[in-house]
Amino acid sequence: MPVEKTTNKWGIVVLVSTFILMIGAAFLVYNLQSDFSDYNTERMTTTWGLIFSVIAGALFLYRGGFFIYNLYLYFRYKVIKSVTDEELPTCTVIVPAYNEGKQVYATLMSLAASDFPKEKLQLLAIDDGSKDDTWYWMQEAKNILGDRVTIFQQPENKGKRHALYRGFNLGTGEVFVTVDSDSVVNTDTLRNLVSPFVVNEKCGAVAGNIRVLNNEKALLPKMLNVNFVLSFEFMRSAESTLESVLCTPGALAAYRSSAVFECLPEWINQTFMGRPSDIGEDRAMTNMILKRGNHVLFQRNAYAYTNVPERYSGLYKMFIRWGRSNVRENIAMSKYVFTNFREGSKIGSRLLFINQFLKIIMSYPLILIMFYFVASHPILFLSSTLLSILIYSSFPAFFYAKRYTLAESFWAYSYSILYTFGLFWITPYAIATASKSGWLTRELSTKK
User: Fold this and answer.
1) How far is 138 from 23, CA to CA, in rounded Å?
2) Distances (CA, A) of 118 to 53, 68, 185, 283, 292
3) Do residues 152 and 127 lie in contact, with contact meaning Cβ atoms separated by under 8 Å?
4) Taking the CA of residue 34 as centre, how many other CA atoms within 13 Å lie in the half-sphere pointing to its CB?
5) Is pTM, for the whole model, over 0.85?
6) What are the pLDDT digits (tens) for 193-209?
7) Are 306 and 180 in contact (CB under 8 A)?
8) What is the rounded CA–CA span in Å between residue 183 and residue 302?
């Protein structure tokens, strides 16, 4: 049976099972109302139970208020339209690659097909000591594109940060664009991505809009595709309204070259707990550019499509890497966000930081409460959790359906179940292991 048909078959099974679980949970909650009432009454009669109720109520109000605030910011967001060819700045696109194989060829060809003035576009590809045939596919792209692309090979694998560092020092553009070697872009992506630098002289970096490339091949990419839409088109739109996008993604990001060179020495020599930082280079660059008073924006009309893990092992490793980077950069952000780090309002940046920080510090208490609830009232926990997923996941499902298609939007529910029961441990583990390094997902045997 073809892979696509098998995937569709299992997809139907997963979606049907998801809704059976959630609807079953709704019936359970309805039938167990007296049990829930007794549990709440019992909890309110103890000191710890009362404390828990107060904290839970406060968190609920905070999360609800922050969601409404983000919704307000989202509706205020406006994409910046592309400027004319004459106004476009010169642009250096840097593509670092490690063990990417043939996909790097597709990446370079998609970039070369951009409707960006050729005389203003410099395309650099850097093989970071790959162990597979990545260099061969770079050479194949070079054979076709000729002088339009320049390729380099690191003598050994030094990590993505060092490959980008080489590209920054070789680049001549007024704007640097970084694109992951497992991504492809639309023809208008580059011009849309760099236009904010022309319109806003304070703009130091721009985040692109990331969608999933391999969402027809497996179930996890289908779920992540819906999650990415919420993460980028809703959350980063809100952050962009505050001119404080917290992370420009490695898959597609643009930086004003002068802003890059201001923080380049600090960035390449960054350490955490005495060790060189070899992860989170995108979040670190964004953080350093924000710290210097620049605006960081999001361009919803600048699309990149990137490959994501198709198996659970690759997924949790990717999330661990992101989680560790989040811990590190929130610590770094705490050192400047409450200072007079830029002109104009700084309240939005501070609120975004507080929201991120609360997620980190509350991860351990919440997981302990969850384990206690599971041990003491497993049926109540399971039914209430699944019902909550049915309620709260309806927003990302509706958002995706409004922006794209109804059929794919239902994956929001499956993703929430997966994250709640299969990935809840990521943040606590990332906090405990924040000092550890390593990319985790780029070796040949565990590439995805």
Assistant:
1) 51
2) 61, 44, 16, 30, 32
3) yes
4) 1
5) yes
6) 999 999 999 999 999 99
7) yes
8) 13
